[in-house]
Specification:
- It is a single chain.
- The protein contains seven helices and 14 strands.
- By secondary structure, the chain is of the alpha/beta class.
- The protein has one domain.
- The strands form four sheets. The chain has an eight-stranded mixed beta sheet. Strands 1-2 form a two-stranded antiparallel ribbon.
- A hairpin with a 2-residue loop joins strand 5 (112-113) and strand 6.
- Helix 1 runs antiparallel to helix 2.
- The longest helix has 22 residues, at 54-75.
- The N and C termini lie far apart (38 Å).
């Protein structure tokens, strides 16, 4: 299964395509449907795989994570000073998750967002986050979250862990009762100079940031 054709839970089984690479002028309604599709397939892939299919399921899960990251980026707005100039690429960083990193590298090839080319960087230390515009931190690295949860100017932080947003991260996505829930910390976004499209905010659960996590680190 790839991220090019995904089934939406609200479409009566209709198969919905992801946007073609480079199509930055897609309508907000279309983007919302595509993101819901990515979340739905992520929920399916979270189920325990049959014996002998673990490697395949892990690969598909990584692909769905990569698709979610790209879809979420299309809803995000970065401050003007997050980029050196108009030709600078949008940098996606993956923290200590080789499988998602490989899937994201494939997903970004030839694509653009808001007229910018896309680049993937694998990082092994949280000190490298400052070079990113979007950073994905897997739930398996939860011990690193107290540091990663601190706001960094112009960096959209995402994790597949609810506690990430509640502790000061910006966006989390987790398996819920009826699919995958999106959790957004608007305060953390604002503190870092970021904003998210109202269409995504309407789909998400909004949480507040603990006072201890309410600080921003300049790049």
């Amino acid at each position: 299964m790839t991220d090019s054709m995904l089934k939406s839970p609200n479409s009566g089984g209709q198969m919905l395509p992801f946007p073609e690479k480079g199509s930055d002028k897609q309508g907000i309604r279309t983007c919302a449907r595509q993101l819901r599709a990515a979340l739905f397939i992520s929920a399916l892939l979270w189920c325990s795989p049959p014996a002998g299919e673990t490697e395949t399921i892990v690969g598909e899960l990584s692909q769905s994570h990569a698709s979610f990251l790209v879809s979420a980026a299309r809803f995000a707005n970065w401050p003007a000073d997050a980029f050196p100039d108009e030709t600078s690429p949008l940098v996606f960083c993956v923290y200590k998750d080789p499988e998602t990193g490989m899937a994201l590298q494939e997903r970004l090839q030839g694509d653009t967002i808001k007229g910018r080319s896309l680049r993937k960087v694998d990082i092994d230390t949280l000190e490298d986050i400052a070079q990113c515009h979007l950073v994905y931190l897997p739930a398996s690295r939860i011990r690193d979250y107290p540091v990663a949860g601190q706001g960094i100017h112009g960096v959209l932080s995402i994790s597949d862990c609810r506690e990430f947003a509640e502790s000061g991260g910006m966006l989390g996505f987790i398996r819920g009762e009826q699919g995958v829930d999106v959790i957004i910390n608007v305060e953390a976004l604002n503190a870092s100079g970021m904003s998210i499209s109202p269409s995504l905010l309407q789909m998400a659960e909004l949480v507040k940031m603990d006072a201890a996590a309410n600080r921003t680190i300049d790049k």
